[in-house]
Each structure stands twice: as C-alpha cells, then as structure tokens.
C-alpha cells in the first residue's frame, strides 16, 4: 500500500503545521511571572490583615478586663483619700490611749513625802518620769512667782507639804477650792525641790 506524500492531506490526518517541524507539537506559551508591583501589594495586604486581627483581639481583651495600671492608680487614689479623711477625733483618741497606757503610780501625799525624805535616789527611781495619781488634803492654794497655779497638799510633817504645779486649765476649779478638802490630782512627774516633793502639769481627777 502506497503511503501518501508528506504535506498532503489524507485519511491519516491533517498535514503537520509549518514552522515547528514535522511530527512535533507546538511549544507551550511561556508563563509570565508576578510583577514587582503585585508582590508589594500582596505583602502589604498580609501586613494590613495581621494588624486588623491584632486590633480585634486587643479590643476583645480590653472589654473583658480593666488595665492593671488603671486599677493600681484607682487603689492608690482611694487609699490616699481614706488617709486624708481620717477624723481628728480618732487621732486624738489614739494619743489619749497612748497616754493612758503609761504606768500610773497611785500614792498619797504623805507617802510621797516620806519616800523622798527617806531616800531621794530611790524615790526618783520609783516616781520620776511616771504618771502619779496623788491623793491628799488641801493645805494651801497659791500662785507661783511667775503666775502659775500652785496647790499644796498636807503631809506627815505639819510644816512641809507636797507641791503640785497645776495645769492652767484648772484655773476655775482652783478658784473654788478650799483648804482641808480631799482631792486627787494626776501629775506627769515628781522630783525633790527645797526639801519637798514637787509635781508638775497636774489636773484634778
């Protein structure tokens, strides 16, 4: 059987295309790569999308919790306000309590006089620098050389007395006081002065 000549049409198919060689398929067209502009757009798109997601997450977290800095500042402000509003009465009560907790020695005017005349050093160790609640009989009501209030209490010695330097707040009570009356005075400290016990900053109790 005779073959058809090259380039002729026949039952074995259409003639090969010109320019690529007989029997070879035409080459595939070259794929074009992404341009630089497209790459930049893709990168910026990814970055923008990531920023949007971070913002959404942060917004959700803020809605569910209070920032620690704000909480600390709020607590600090509340604490300062409470300290500033502490009533003066509470401070005064605290100071009074501290004074009341000091050791208080209860003694009579005669006993105090006898202790100092028996041994002044031992008496100072026992009484000096402490609160003394002294009981006794009023021997005289005087004013000191510089205008202070002086209350003298009788002792076992009829010629000598215990000297109490009264606080100025006791002026009205001193003005109504009479000799021979029994009194109690709370004094801050004791010492010996010109042969007689001397008490300072005394108030009536």
In short:
By secondary structure, the chain is an alpha+beta fold.
Defining key terms:
205 residues, alpha+beta, five-stranded mixed barrel
Write up this protein.
The chain has 205 residues and is an alpha+beta fold. Helices cover 40% and strands 24% of the residues. It has six helices and seven strands, in the order H-H-H-E-H-H-E-E-E-H-E-E-E. It has helices spanning 36-64, 68-84, 88-100, 109-118, 120-127, 171-176, and strands at 104-108, 131-143, 149-154, 161-166, 182-187, 189-193, 196-204. It has a five-stranded mixed β-barrel with strand order 2-3-4-7-5. Helix 4 (109-118) crosses helix 5.
Helix content: 40-55%
Strand order of the largest sheet: 2-3-4-7-5
Task: Give unreliable regions as ranges.
Answer: 7-16
Oligomer: single chain
* Dominant shape: elongated
Describe the largest sheet. 5 strands, mixed, barrel
Order of helices and strands: HHHEHHEEEHEEE
Mean pLDDT: 74
Give me the count of strands: 7
Question: What structural class do the secondary elements suggest?
Answer: alpha+beta
In angstroms, what is the radius of gyration?
Answer: 55 Å
Binned strand content: 15-25%
Distance between the termini: 153 Å
Continuous helix count: 6
């Amino acid at each position: 059987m005779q073959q058809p000549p090259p380039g002729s049409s026949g039952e074995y198919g259409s003639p090969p295309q010109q320019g690529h060689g007989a029997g070879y398929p035409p080459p595939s067209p070259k794929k074009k790569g992404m341009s630089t502009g497209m790459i930049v757009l893709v990168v910026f798109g990814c970055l923008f999308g990531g920023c949007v997601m971070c913002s959404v997450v942060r917004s959700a977290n803020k809605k569910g919790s209070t920032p620690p800095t704000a909480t600390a500042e709020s607590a600090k402000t509340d604490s300062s306000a409470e300290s500033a509003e502490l009533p003066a009465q509470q401070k005064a009560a605290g100071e009074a309590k501290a004074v009341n907790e000091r050791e208080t020695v209860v003694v009579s005017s005669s006993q105090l006089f006898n202790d100092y005349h028996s041994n002044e050093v031992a008496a100072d160790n026992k009484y000096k620098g402490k609160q003394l609640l002294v009981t006794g009989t009023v021997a005289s009501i005087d004013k000191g050389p510089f205008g202070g209030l002086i209350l003298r209490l009788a002792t076992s010695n009829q010629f000598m007395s215990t000297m109490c330097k009264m606080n100025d707040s006791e002026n009205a009570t001193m003005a109504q006081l009479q000799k021979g009356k029994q009194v109690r005075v709370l004094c801050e400290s004791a010492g010996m002065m010109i042969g007689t016990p001397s008490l300072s900053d005394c108030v009536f109790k």
